[in-house]
């Protein structure tokens, strides 16, 4: 019978969720950094984000966060800008929802950023959804 030389299965690789419940210090942006909101995930450790300065950037999720910190559409992240490529950036940190609310309270984020919604929806789309519904009356249903 062969000896088991490995250190365990895939559950060992996942690790423990120790950092979920503890509070951490709020990190503000410095020179060469920018706040952004994730527009869409592209796969392969990349995402497209809309920065506070008004530009869309292709972002690379750093290896320390890859498969450990899950980033979704609409999340507020901190980007490290590149000196040599203006349209690309690196994801440094993902803000938790309560941290993002604190950033908005400290006026670090503008008022037009919408928090706590999974999908980024433009204001025009909300009105368009209301027009898609058709109301039927009892007489119409009887004809069918």
Main β-sheet description: 5 strands, mixed, barrel
Return Rg in Å: 22 Å
| Helicity, as a percent range | 10-25%
Structural class, by secondary structure, is: alpha+beta
Q: Give the low-confidence spans.
A: 118-123
Proportion of residues in extended strands: 25-35%
Termini separation: 71 Å
Write structural notes for this entry.
The chain has about 140 residues and is an alpha+beta fold. It has four helices and five strands. The protein has helices spanning about 10-15, 95-105, 125-130, 140-144; strands at about 35-45, 45-50, 55-60, 75-80, 90-95. It has a five-stranded mixed β-barrel with strand order 1-2-3-5-4.
List the helices and strands and how they pair.
Elements: H1 10-14, E1 33-43, E2 46-51, E3 56-61, E4 76-81, E5 88-94, H2 97-105, H3 123-130, H4 138-143
Parallel strand pairs: 3-5
Antiparallel strand pairs: 1-2, 1-4, 2-3, 4-5
Keywords:
single chain; 5 strands; alpha+beta; 144 residues; 19% helix
Short description:
This protein has 144 residues and is an alpha+beta fold. The chain has helices spanning 10-14, 97-105, 123-130, 138-143, and strands at 33-43, 46-51, 56-61, 76-81, 88-94.
